[in-house]
Amino acid sequence: MTTTVAAIQMNSVADVAANLAAAKRLLTEAAAGGAKLAVLPENFAFMGAHEAAKLVHAEPLGSGPIQSFLADTAKALSMWIVGGTIPLAVPDDARKVYAASLVFNDQGQRVAHYDKIHLFDVDVLRDGKTESYRESNSIAFGSVSPTFTETPAGVLGLSVCYDLRFPELYRSLSSQGAQLLCVPSAFTEKTGEAHWEILLRARAVENLCAVIAPNQTGTHAGGRRTWGHSMIISPWGEILAQRAEGEGVVLATLDAEAQTKVRSSFPSLNHRRL
């Protein structure tokens, strides 16, 4: 009834080959640590100086070097992998991609696909200067349908980064049977310092779901800085494991029986009236 899971923290750069090599090394470490499910961060395969830079790496669903890497690595390591996000081609629109999170089982088969639905179009004040982010200029909005899949660790609900600020998505996932949630992210340093932990723990507590939250860390092309602090959280909101800075693997063991007992003794999910 217990399963070891992993959140992979990366400092991705504007070089797909280098990022895939780093991801392979970290995923191999996670598998060696007993992980049956590993989640990569948002933009794990490419982080350029500008959002539009990823357009040249767009892949059609079902083929391409990044998807082949995920499938081959999952099979080679006999481990389920959530591929953070990859730039997935939008049919008939070469100006945009989907920020797609793909799940591969331990046989290398794609079993779930979620396109990020909330896009980071905000201005962030950092060190007296305004950083502007407009993901919708180069990323297409995904479907609003909640996406989840069965995994060795339980029913996994999919989300990405900025989705974290919209609790209705996670309520929908938990109401449809999700037992754990993943939030692959590239949370900025400024917003991460203020809100990352509190939002993740809130999503865990209000849904009585475990949360796997891998984040990007450090400085990237163009000077963008991300917060790190990848973590795995219990359904009771406890931080089971965390890595503050630097690339690495965060491992924790989830207990499905303990979660069932918590949901039985504290049945808040059954007390909803709205």
TrEMBL record:
SUPFAM superfamilies per record: Carbon-nitrogen hydrolase (SSF56317)
GO molecular function, one term: hydrolase activity, acting on carbon-nitrogen (but not peptide) bonds, in linear amides
Keywords: Acyltransferase, Hydrolase, Lipoprotein, Transferase
Coiled coil location: none
Top-rank lineage group of the source organism: Bacteria
One Pfam family cited in the UniProt record for this chain: CN_hydrolase
Record bears the keyword Transferase: yes
Residue ranges of every copy of the CN hydrolase domain listed in the record: 3-256
Family: Belongs to the carbon-nitrogen hydrolase superfamily. NIT1/NIT2 family.
UniProt-recorded name of the protein: Apolipoprotein acyltransferase
